[in-house]
Amino acid sequence: MDLQQRLMAEIKEAMKAKAAERLGALRLILNALKEREINARGTDAVLGDELAVLARMVKQRQESVKVYLEGGRPELAAKETAEIAVIEGFLPKQLTAEEVEAVVTSAIAEVGATSVKDMGRVMAVLKAGYTGQMDFGAVGALIKGKL
Questions:
Q1: By C-alpha distance, which of 48, 44, 25 is closest to 35?
Q2: What does pTM read for this prediction?
């Protein structure tokens, strides 16, 4: 079952269970995926990975949580945190810190990276195989440290 079919099934379940918050988050995911498809129509653009869309949604919400907490709005931060939990349910399991370090080390060896100039190639290898499984912002710092 592909992601959109699974998402539609989850939406039906949330409607039956009258879980309004979960239903709202699921609809946000569906809308983001449909928007990506619409933007790619009529162009030569290749549809990006659905996991990348979900990862971007999680990152946006994490930033919003930080802003809401700094602004003294814990109720909005709680709503965003609940949406993060729903979105992460569709992402693959996150890698542990040790696994991330091992993957980064092997990607550096695979590419033959020797300096920070090669960082883009290392990131490309990681994004091809591990999108949605790690925070690429933190991975960037790790790669720089190893190079």
A1: 48
A2: 0.73
The candidate with the shortest Cα–Cα distance to 100, out of 52, 61, 54, 139, is 139
* 28 φ, ψ (degrees, to nearest 5): -60, -40
- Angle between the N-to-C axes of helices 20-40 and 50-70, in degrees from 0 to 180, rounded to the nearest 10: 130
- Strands, E assignment, 79-142: none
Sign of torsion, CA 121 142 128 5?
negative
The answer to whether 113 and 58 have CB atoms below 8 angstroms apart is: no
Among the listed residues 101, 99, 96, the one whose alpha carbon sits nearest the alpha carbon of residue 141: 101
Q: Do you know the residue count of the chain?
A: 147
In this structure, the dihedral spanned by the alpha carbons of residues 9, 11, 13 and 17, taken in order and rounded to 10 degrees, is: 180
Q: 44-95: per-residue pLDDT in tens?
A: 655 557 888 888 899 999 999 999 999 999 999 999 999 999 999 988 888 8
